[in-house]
Amino acid sequence: MTGALAAGAVVGAGLYLLVRALFPARPGLAARMAALDAARRRDLDAPPPGRISPTLERVGGFRARLGGELVRFCEARGWRLRSVRADLAITERSLEAFLATKFLLPAAALLFVPLVVAYFALLGLGTSVQVPVWICGLFALLFFFFPDMQLKQEAQARRQDFRHVVGAFLDLVAMNLAGGRGVPEALVSAANVGEGWGMHRIREALGNARITGRTPWQALGGLGEELDVAELRDLAGALALVADDGAQIRKSLAARAASMRSRELSELEGKAGERSQSMLVAQLFLCAGFLVFLAYPALMRVLSA
């Protein structure tokens, strides 16, 4: 009964997805404009072709085409994928490659169904297809969510590093303001001091703001929205409110940097406490195993007597 219900649910979901794929909904004006802007950005940011082997070039081209089709499929239905885009932006990866990986990994898992059936037949477990299909289906489901978990972990680590860079950037801006510079000059001068990918992103955002005629705090706010970093958005709001008062913004930036450092220290202390607790649990398991090892011969002698 349970197998029949599960099979009916899978067939119903497949039919629903087939109907949605054959008769897609008409995208709105906002979705079309977003798709046009995304296609224009892809054309501008496309890297020049390098000298690679023909096999790798064919594989990369197929993956790029598949990723592009999947991106257009999502954009046609108005799926923004904002959290995924923010994670990909901070890890400097493309949406096309991510969606292609999410599609190809489950497909590769399902391709192993005949091999699993042949292996079961070789072991003498019968030639039934039901168990291999369930096994490969579970692996396909796991492989479908594996890129998301990997992306979340990598993005979380990168955001932690970026927050550390933002704290140092705030200190540098406060020191430049104390030296008598204005807020825009202090932001640009502080961004030119440090190195690394985080400071490079801040410096690039400020440089693009100068070219496009935007204010530096608007550029920092846009970067915070793109990378989903709340500290940059708060900094942009604070700079927009008190950009004319250098002394007040200097105190505010110093207080923000101090609060970010204290929060980072508290997070590090919490992680250290969790690791110490895990080490304590491992030591308890080791002691329990040692006690079992000591008591097992005596227990077996008593039981055999």
Automatic annotation (TrEMBL):
It comes from Actinomadura sediminis. This is Type II secretion system protein. The chain crosses the membrane at residues 6-23, 103-125, 131-149, 280-299. Keywords: Membrane, Transmembrane, Transmembrane helix.
